[in-house]
User: Fold DUF7684 domain-containing protein from Duganella guangzhouensis.
Amino acid sequence: MLNSAPKYLHLSPASELPSLEGLRQFKAVVVVEADVLETMMWDVSRWLVDSGCLYALVWGKDSEQWREAIEDASLEAADYEDLPAERQVQVTSHEDDDLDEVFWFAQHRAAHAADLKQTLILHLADVPRRDELEAQFRDA
Assistant:
């Protein structure tokens, strides 16, 4: 169940990565609508993990590659050591799902994420769609 309104962040393929103020131990819905260089994919993946993302749901272009990059970033952050379950980053790819289904899943079924009160909608696109994506998340 939804605990609070999501935080929306738009990044264009050339954006610098900002500090994620006010977020810690959160889930992220990564909405990829732009072509992103592999180096940016890795930078964003590491940034998400370093910022406290513990559950990531990836939808859009190259979602399976994004899933792998975020998983690898979480392993790298732990120096490839085993982590307790509560510190492991869970990542799911939703390339065949509608975005509405991903938003619904993020709110109602994301196992491991029940205690994560904050959600980030990370929108990688050429043009922001804050109002539309926030409404779509709210209605899911």
Q: What stands out?
A: The two ends are 11 Å apart (CA to CA). Strands lie at 7-11, 26-32, 53-60, 90-93, 118-124. The chain has four helices and five strands. The first helix runs from residue 38 to 51.
